[in-house]
Amino acid sequence: MMTLAQLYEAGRRVVIGSLTFAAEDIIRFARDFDPQPFHLDEEEARHSLFGGLCASGWHTSAGWMHCFVEFWKGEIQRLAAEGLHAPKLGPSPGFRELKWLKPVYAGDTITYAVTLIEARVVASRPGWRINTILCEGENQHGEAVIRFESKVIEFA
User: Where residue 156 falls among pLDDT bands split at 50, 70, 90?
Assistant: First the structure.
C-alpha cells in the first residue's frame, strides 16, 4: 500500500474539483445552517456589506469537502486500475487557520485544490501517519476565496 507522501510529493498542488454556487443552493444551505440575511435574501444582500447574495463560509468549506471526497473516490479507482492500493485515509483530527478571503457570490465557480505540506509517522500508533494538507479554493477570476490547513489521519 502506498502512503499519501509517496503518491503526492510535498508542495505539489493538486486540483480536486470545482463547484458552482447557484443562488438556490446558497439560500437552501443558509436556511438550514447559516440564516443570515445576506445568505438568504437577494434584495437584503444587495444592501449589505457584501453587495450581493453570497454563500456562507461554511458552505464554501463544505464545498471543499464535497470535492475532496469525490476526488479521493476517483483516486482509489484510478490506483486500483493500475494494480495499486490507495492509502486509507481516516478522519481529520482538526484544522487551523481557516480563512474566508473573499465572498463567494451566486454564480461563482470555485475550483478547489489540496497540497501536501508534510507527513509524519505517529510513534504511538504503528502504521499510522498524520498528514498536514493545505486546502484552498479560488473563484473563476483566479482570486483566492478560502484557505485552511488540515490534518488527515492515514492508516496502514
Answer: confident
